[in-house]
Design goal:
By secondary structure, the protein is of the alpha+beta class. The chain has three helices and four strands; from the N terminus they run H-E-E-H-E-E-H. The strands form two sheets. Strands 1-2 form a two-stranded antiparallel sheet. Strands 3-4 form a two-stranded antiparallel sheet. Strand 3 and strand 4 form a beta hairpin. It binds zinc ion (ZN). Zinc ion binds next to loops.
Length: about 70
């Protein structure tokens, strides 16, 4: 099925949220996929530890969130 609403993909990135757990203090935060892609690094507001969101692990995880949300179309 051809997707005629390609622009919805951007909306998706703004809507879908991923949970980030700080590796140092365990503080949890929720950010949109768009935020993750734009910023690349998450700085924990509690301890200041930085999480690199551009690692392969995070790239896979972000893609997983996107896949999970686009699979509704099938
Ligand atoms: Zn922290």
């Amino acid at each position: 099925m051809v997707d005629t609403k390609r622009m919805d993909n951007n909306n998706l990135l703004e809507t879908v949220e991923a949970k980030i757990v700080c590796g140092q203090c365990g503080n949890q935060a929720v950010k949109t996929i768009a935020w993750l892609k734009t910023n690349g690094i998450y700085e924990c507001p509690v301890c200041g530890d930085e999480t690199d969101l551009r690692t392969q692990e995070w790239t896979d995880r972000i893609q997983g969130y996107i896949d999970a949300c686009t699979s509704f179309d099938e």
